[in-house]
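Substrate-binding domain-containing protein
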Amino acid sequence: MTEDKRITIKDIAQLAGVSKGTVDRVIHNRGEVSEASRQKVLEVAQRIGYKPNIYASLLASQKKYLMACLLPDYGPGEYWERVAQGLEAARKKSEPFNIDIRLFTYDLFSIESFQKGYAEMIAHQPDAIVLAPTFREKVRGLVNELSRKEIPCLLIDSYLSDCPYLAYYGMPMFQSGYLAAHLLLDRQPAQQVAIFRIHKDKDALNNSAERRREGFMSYLADHHLECDLIEEYIHPYDSDFNGAVLERFFRNNPDIRHIITFNSRVHLIAEQLEREKRENTILVGFDDLPKNIEGLKKGSIQFLIAQHSENLLSYCADTVINRLIYHNPPEKQNHFVPMDILTRYNAEYYRF
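Predicted structure tokens:
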């Protein structure tokens, strides 16, 4: 074959000694073909460098696909808003392949809301699904069910061990907790560490926060650090409740200097430190939310561990395109994105 001659299905059929229909079924993975014929076609196609015209095939078939994303609902400036901001870029990638991307949401703190959102999503018969495993065991069961139905499922924000999802995109959560411990404790030894957590529904186990906490505890064990851990719970939206809890906490623990949260709401702690004009504290948290960046610049937060979460859905779209259109599985299951360390000196340059 000369380089300027377009390779056709007819060429492959002649070289492999099979019919054009057989070649078509092998290339597009449809219909029944004997294994011997399949191997002949694949060997010839690889030898002569044949690549199917995907766009022409899509135009001819008029087949449309749906990639459904079930994510927690969000308000302005919240973490999941940052994730959802990646929808436009993901759609630009998927539209030429007749893949529509649709977003479904649920209350982050209600498993009943999650189940309702999942049922609504499944009713649209998606060809691929993106989930955040905020309800760990519930999502594990759903991923296994989707695998049995051969519906590709991708995870973002955190992943589940021993689970047949197609791909994960996000931070390595355990390692991010380990890193957070290093940032908090490496420069200055601590006798006490305050850990602020979020009140949730009893079923709403935050998988990412739990994995980060496990990484944090592993750092303490590996470095033989002995300090008292004082845990306190705050509410994601009740400012009056939080004000009372935080004021009482710091009144009862006036000497505490090391503070950490394993979620994106570190600004709630930073704002209390600013109100009390507390100094000489080290506060570490996660995610580049506007209020977190503000606390970083003011100096009430020392470190943020962040990722470009607006890219996660775009990464998922790439994998779904490869899976649905090219029939190529991802090279690996877990795709970890970089853990970026932000300080007051580099934060304003981060979102580019």
